[in-house]
Amino acid sequence: MNVREKPDTQFKKVTVINVGDKAKVLEKTTNLSSVWYKISVNGKEGWASSNYLQKYNTYENQKESEKVSVENNTQESAKTSNKSTDKSENTSSDSNEKKGSNLIVENFNTLGNSEQVILVTNASASSSNAKIQAFEKTNNVWKKVYEFSGHVGKNGIGKTKEGDGKSPEGKYSIGFAFGHGSKPNTRLSYRNVTEDIVWVDDSNSKYYNTWQDKSKVAVDWNSAEDMNINQYARGFVINYNANKTPGRGSAIFFHVNGNYGYTLGCTSASKANVERLLSWINPSKSPVIIQTPESKLGNY
Predict the structure, then answer these.
(1) Residue pair 169/119 in contact by the 8 Å Cβ criterion
(2) How far apart are CA 12 and CA 6, in angstroms?
(3) pLDDT (tens digit, 0 to 9) for every residue of the chain, 300 residues total?
(4) DSSP 8-state symbol, 107
(5) Do 281 and 186 form a contact (C-beta atoms < 8 A)?
(6) CA of 19: how far to CAs of 22, 23, 69, 97, 152, in Å?
(7) Cβ neighbours of residue 103 under 8 Å, at least 6 residues apart?
(8) N or C: which end of the chain has fewer CB within 10 A?
(9) Helix (H) or strand (E) holding 146
(10) Rounded-to-integer distance, Cα 300 and Cα 294, Å
């Protein structure tokens, strides 16, 4: 079985794992309703579909000794080339994709012409732990594309003012992508972060809630978010408070997880999952992000 650079059959093969080989599980994610594991095998790391792996310990235990091995099933043993392996994996993905239709999004009546939705929910309004799901509408049918865990504000969802430690509740359009270094695989416009880049969070500044290069403007703010940090290695802007209403909140992004189980008002996920969303988002499909406690899903 091919072990790939990222959890999808479209990505480059980094190594192979044979029937009976064992590997250590490093991470778990869901793509098109199919579970993939990031594994360490043969001195390399990559992603493998769970369809062909047999677990010896559960992932949730996250034991140091956790291992998986390739099952010697009919599909796997019948493969005689990389080409046939890819065909079988894609067939599995197609089958799982058909199961991805989700009544939550199908019942939303606030989406307008949006054909891509990132849904961020928490079990209670005050929880910083979030479920993140991505849905796409193709040929008038909604399907789930991704599902993974992430974090919202340390005080949950429901922002009302600057500095309240909450992520905004509601439906928002998606702005530009940003990050450190060259542009990643994304169709969004992209801005590179340098040491001079900040996001102004001073309500008294005329630049409030905007990206600025402090070396190129007359600084009139007393505080601003430094963009040259690890969490902003990859991310995109959530267009909250687009009217720049003073004190309502600023610098709301979808970015890479930090060292804590919460953000200060943004939404975060693993770097791999942020990059996955960046490569998936298609501006021509009017993508939106909806953030809400599960109890308020009926509002959309």
Answers:
(1) no
(2) 8
(3) 888 888 877 678 888 887 778 888 888 887 655 688 888 888 888 888 887 777 655 443 444 444 555 544 433 333 333 433 333 333 333 333 434 444 688 889 999 999 999 999 999 999 999 999 999 999 999 999 999 999 999 999 999 999 999 999 999 999 999 999 999 999 999 999 999 999 999 999 999 999 999 999 999 999 999 999 999 999 999 999 999 999 999 999 999 999 889 999 999 999 999 999 999 999 999 999 999 999 999 999
(4) T
(5) yes
(6) 9, 11, 7, 26, 41
(7) none
(8) C
(9) strand 141-151
(10) 11
Which token pair is 70? Answer: 């390739």
Q: Which two tokens stand for residue 212?
A: 């600025």
Left (φ > 0), alpha (ψ -120 to 50) or beta: where does 285 sit? alpha
- Tokens matching residue 150: 């992430």
Entry pTM: 0.68
Cα–Cα distance, 273 to 91 (Å, whole number): 23
Picking from 140, 138, 66, 144, the residue whose alpha carbon sits closest to that of residue 104 is 144
Query: What is the amino acid identity at position 121?
Result: T
Shortest CA distance to 238 belongs to which of 257, 224, 251? 251
What residues contact 145, with CB distance under 8 A and at least 6 apart? Answer: 31, 32, 100, 134, 135, 136, 280
User: Is there a contact between 34 and 96 (Cβ–Cβ < 8 Å)?
Assistant: yes
Tokens matching residue 271: 């770097």
CB atoms closer than 10 angstroms to residue 237: 23
10 Å CB burial of residue 133 (0-12, 13-18, 19+) is buried
